[in-house]
Specification:
Number of helices: 26
Strand content: 15-25%
CATH topology of the domain at 51-252: Penicillin binding protein transpeptidase fold
Strand order of the largest sheet: 7-6-14-13-12
Largest sheet: 5 strands, antiparallel
Length: 779
């Protein structure tokens, strides 16, 4: 009996040992499997990735325009530092107050939920942490027990690999907030019309309570539920020590203040243009300024509405001059106005510029020494046979200065100027300024090019005006914050542009009536120019100084003319209003002369540098490096005799018969009239000053060797004074006693001129030939 009992005990013992070992193996296997699962590589990007909406942002990161994401939802990815701390605290207090103390699963909440669910025999409470909610939206796992277990495991794995901040960021950017809103930023903008970083305590508590049941608590449809949920979140924040009793009481007393707010739709034309190139983060950072863009769109729209449909559309551009960056860009008065093709970007549409191109013709003439700003021109009838230009108002002013002619946009003097320069050179100069629409040969436009018998784009014309405002340095307009910085390209000298500033400066229309009563420092100084196309199809205006440039086009999208489409009457008031709406900078609004202008004596009648026969003279400023070899030729003595001529008596005036070929100057190749009037030539100075290298009619053969085809420019006084050098009437540079100037030789016949600071001038001609050409000078 005892042996039988012992046998049975041994059998039971062996069976228990086998079961115990099996249990140990099972537990070990489970632990090993769990460890393997936890340590198995995990792609955390899928849990943190946000299907973001496309965003166009301004220079400060503020939202200008937003697009729906691929799921037709509004979702904006934001870092924690872009979200109100109150919203972060409210989310933790409402959804997972032990967030920073657990590792993906909250054991206390889990046991509480199990007890409550067993007790009520149904699911009445959950134990999802913020981490589990992030996992749930990443895996789309079910609410079944198996699904919950998978969430728990994945939550622990996620916590092992990413920081709490990353998990919190993913939750706030991926949680549902009702309607088609994903993430707290979308909810804040829809319900309160502001970014999440600007939410108040009451607003943050309301937003934080929505993910619990977005449909039930949406403030637009169920305001009472939303208030109850908000107050609950505030009490949870109080319990967790995030806010004080006073803050809780004040926030609970706040009205709901939630409403339907549209997402920003500023700069829609630019946004659509940039959408295909959005980065992986679905963001495009522009250099636009939100406040400037908002004001510009509003001013343009209100201006068009006040025209009572006589003018249907307008476009505007606002530029920061020093950086050539676009602060505002309005493509049409109303993006949704189909009658005016509002969705077509008028700032990029080719339109006739009218007189808006004249400043570039005058600038080129000044640069090439064909014109002086103070020079007298004749505004009279002009006939070229088939081409018979006339002024806009069909009136003529007679003798006017070049400055007056440009300031008042007279057509006849402009034709005179372009005739001197040559329309081919004007065409080439405009092409250098990146006018893409001037794609026809120069002969296609002829002399009428300066009057606008072509088509240009507002943004390209604005870039050219920005070059003038930047004192001759051309920069392509910048739209994107990450655009590469292109070095400026000098197109005109500083002195030329300083004279353009003088020629174009005028009070703006609203300031004309104030006259001298206007305070000196009331408003910043400004230059402006208008343009009206033939037939009144387009009106233009540009206003600028050293700080800002505003460009405006007005017209009808279908090209319908209107008598209201006059640059000075329609476009200029709009441009002036936009310009004066800009905040002045703490920088000079006007360029410093800085030695780029010099004074010389001119004939009081012709405005040209005076000759010895001019009876009356006055002082005028010229660009420092302008070649003053064109002197007054309208005065000469009535009879010969050196004594009579020296006494300047019986002087006769010579006037051309017509405006065609108008020119009151003659070329002085020896000594400038300014020097003669000041007596700078006395004592034989003029005779002692001459160019030594190159010698007159010198001949050079190109060698092709590195640095072999260049010569040093030398003059008889280059050891005592700086000298200004010109080649083919183009300023080359200034030599000093310490730094001589070198000339790179190119094939052809060249005219080399040199001018002293006192105005003494000498010039020579030389020829450069190829090696296989016989060296001989050709007259």
């Amino acid at each position: 009996m005892r042996s039988l009992l012992q046998n049975r005990l041994r059998v039971i013992g062996r069976w228990c040992w086998r079961q115990w070992k099996r249990a140990l193996y099972t537990v070990a296997l489970a632990v090993a499997s769990l460890v393997a699962i936890l340590l198995w590589p995990m792609n955390t990007a899928s849990y943190r990735r946000v299907s973001a909406s496309g965003e166009i942002q301004d220079r400060s990161g503020r939202l200008l325009y937003a697009f729906l994401n691929e799921g037709e939802q509004w979702c904006f990815d934001r870092d924690l530092n872009e979200i109100s701390p109150r919203l972060i605290q409210a989310g933790i207090a409402a959804e997972d107050h032990r967030f920073y103390r657990h590792h993906g699963v909250d054991p206390v909440a889990f046991l509480r939920a199990v007890w409550q669910n067993v007790r009520h025999r149904r699911i009445v409470s959950g134990a999802s942490t913020l981490t589990m909610q992030v996992v749930k939206r990443g895996d789309r796992s079910s609410r079944s027990p198996i699904g919950k277990i998978c969430q728990i495991v994945q939550a622990v794995r996620l916590e092992m690999r990413v920081s709490k901040e990353d998990i919190l960021r993913a939750y706030l950017n991926r949680a549902p907030y009702g309607l088609n809103l994903v993430g707290c930023e979308a909810a804040a903008r829809r319900f309160f019309g502001k970014p999440a970083r600007e939410l108040t305590l009451s607003e943050a508590a309301l937003i934080a309570g929505l993910p619990k049941a977005p449909t039930v608590y949406t403030p637009l449809n169920h305001p009472e539920n939303a208030i109850r949920r908000r107050d609950y979140v505030l009490k949870r924040m109080l319990a967790e020590g995030f806010i004080s009793h006073e803050e809780c009481r004040e926030a609970c007393a706040q009205p709901l203040r939630a409403d339907w707010h549209p997402f920003p739709t500023l700069a829609p034309h630019l946004a659509i243009q940039l959408r295909p190139g959005l980065t992986a983060q679905k963001k495009a950072a522009t250099v636009l300024d939100l406040n400037t863009q908002l004001a510009a769109e509003q001013i343009v729209k209100e201006t068009i509405e006040r025209t009572h449909r006589e003018i249907g559309n307008a476009a505007a551009i606002v530029i920061d001059v020093p950086s050539a960056s676009v602060l505002a860009r309005v493509g049409s008065a109303d993006f949704f106005d189909t009658s005016q093709s509002g969705q077509v970007d008028a700032s990029r549409a080719p339109r006739s510029p009218g007189s808006a191109l004249k400043p570039f013709t005058y600038a080129l003439a000044l640069e090439r020494g064909c014109l002086y700003a103070c020079e007298t021109l004749l505004d009279s009838s002009l006939d070229y046979g088939l081409y018979d230009p006339e002024n806009y108002d069909r009136r003529y002013r007679g003798l006017v200065s070049a400055s007056y002619a440009l300031k008042h946009s007279l057509n006849i003097p402009a034709i005179t100027v372009v005739e001197r320069v040559g329309y081919a050179r004007v065409h080439s100069f405009l092409r250098e300024l990146d006018f893409s629409t001037l794609d026809q040969p120069a002969e296609r436009y002829g002399l009428g090019l300066t009057l606008g018998n072509c088509e240009v784009k507002l943004e390209e014309l604005a870039a050219a005006y920005c070059m003038l405002a930047n004192l001759g340095e051309f920069r392509p307009l910048t739209l994107l914050a990450d655009s590469p910085a292109n070095p400026p390209r000098r197109c005109l000298s500083r002195g030329t542009c300083l004279k353009l500033y003088e020629m174009l400066e005028q009070p703006l229309p609203a300031e004309l009536e104030q006259g001298d009563a206007r305070p000196v420092n009331a408003v910043s100084r400004a230059c402006w120019k208008t343009g009206t196309s033939t037939g009144h199809h387009d009106a233009w205006a540009f206003v600028f100084n050293r700080q800002y440039l505003v460009g405006v086009w007005m017209g009808n999208s279908d090209g319908t003319p209107s008598s209201k489409l006059v640059g000075g009457e329609a476009a200029l008031p709009l441009a002036a209003k936009l310009f004066r709406a800009l905040t002045p900078k703490n920088e000079p609004d006007w360029p410093e002369v800085a030695g780029d202008l010099r004074e010389a004596s001119v004939c009081a009648l012709s405005g040209l540098p005076a000759s010895v026969f001019c009876p009356h003279t006055k002082g005028e400023t010229f660009p420092r490096n302008q070649y003053l070899n064109r002197i007054c030729d309208m005065h000469y003595p009535a009879r010969t005799g050196s004594a009579m001529a020296a006494q300047n008596t019986n002087v006769i005036e010579r006037w051309p018969a017509t405006a065609k070929g108008w020119n009151l100057a003659k070329i002085s190749a020896a000594v400038s009239p300014a020097a003669r009037k000041s007596g700078a030539t006395t004592g034989g100075t003029a005779q002692s000053f001459r160019i030594l290298n190159p010698a007159d009619k010198a001949e050079y053969v190109l060698t092709g060797e590195n640095n072999g085809d260049r010569i040093r420019l030398r003059a008889s006084v280059d050891a005592q004074t700086p000298l200004h050098w010109y080649v083919d009437e183009i300023f080359l540079g200034t030599s000093t006693p310490q730094k001589p100037l070198l000339l790179d030789l190119t094939a052809g016949v060249h005219k080399v001129a040199c001018m002293t600071p006192e105005g003494l001038i000498d010039q020579v001609r030389c020829e450069v030939v190829l090696p296989d050409s016989p060296p001989h000078f050709k007259e």
